[in-house]
Every structure is written in structure tokens, then in C-alpha cells.
Amino acid sequence: MLKDAVHYSVAENEPVRLVQVTDPHLFADPEGQLLGVNTAQSLQAVLNTFIATQYPANLLLATGDISQDYSPESYQHFVQKIEMLDLPCHYLPGNHDDPRLMSLRMQGEKVFGQQRIIIGNWLILMLDS
User: Fold this and answer.
1) Residues of the domain holding 20
2) What pTM was estimated for this model as a whole?
3) Half-sphere exposure (Cβ direction) of 10: Cα atoms closer than 13 Å
4) Per-residue pLDDT of the chain (129 residues; tens, 9 = 90+)
């Protein structure tokens, strides 16, 4: 069953601007590597690039595989990293995620597991397929 929708407004005639982050594959250990890549550093590089562009986004969508090792710490690391963006973030689990653990550990002032998002004239459905 879908939860109630969360609503965000944008100024009339303004475009909706989304940023999507997917598959960071974080570990409890910030030095954790996947295929020789430090995943925490890789995510940080992506976020730094986004910040450097000064793209005026309205919303961040995190679309799965946040964790590689199913650890509570991996989800907490993600929340800590994205909070610096000062954007609302909605997430959904990937095949490497534990949905129950995500809902317990991915909590922040602007981090939500909401499935239905209405922003401007858009309806975004976050479906775990």
C-alpha cells in the first residue's frame, strides 16, 4: 500500500529540477572498496561535482543500492554525506539494501522513504521493483 503523497511546490512556470543518485554501494568502513573503488570517496566526488555546478535542484532521489554490506553504518554515512546538499531526499531500496534497516537508519531532517512525491505538476512514484 502506498503512503500518502508528500507535496513540494515550485514557482509557477519554473521547471522541476531533480538530482538522482544511485548505487553508491557504501560500507560500514569508510575505506571499503568495491572492484577497487573506495565507494565513500566516489560518492563524495559525485556530490562535490554536483555542488560545483551550482545546479538549482528542488529534490534529490536516491534510487537504490545505498549499501553494499547491509550495515546500519552504511546508511548513516549516506545520510551524513547528502545532508550537506540541503535538499529534501527521497530514497528507495535496491537489491543490495535492507528496506527495514533503511527505514530505521536513513533518518535525517530532510531524508524520507516516501513513495509518492508531488512536486509542481509532477507525480513521482518511487517503486521497489
Assistant:
1) 6-125
2) 0.90
3) 16
4) 556 888 999 998 899 999 999 999 999 999 999 999 999 999 999 999 999 999 999 999 999 999 999 999 999 999 999 998 999 999 999 999 999 999 999 887 789 987 899 999 999 999 887
Q: How many domains does the chain have?
A: 1
C-alpha cell at 64: 537504490
* Amino acid, single-letter form, for residue 39: T
C-alpha cell belonging to residue 114: 516516501
The sign of the torsion formed by the CA atoms of 113, 111, 73, 82 equals positive
Any idea what the CATH number is for the domain that residue 89 is in? 3.60.21.40
Distance CA 38, CA 43 (A): 9
| 48 within domain boundaries | yes
The Cα–Cα gap between 94 and 120 comes to 27
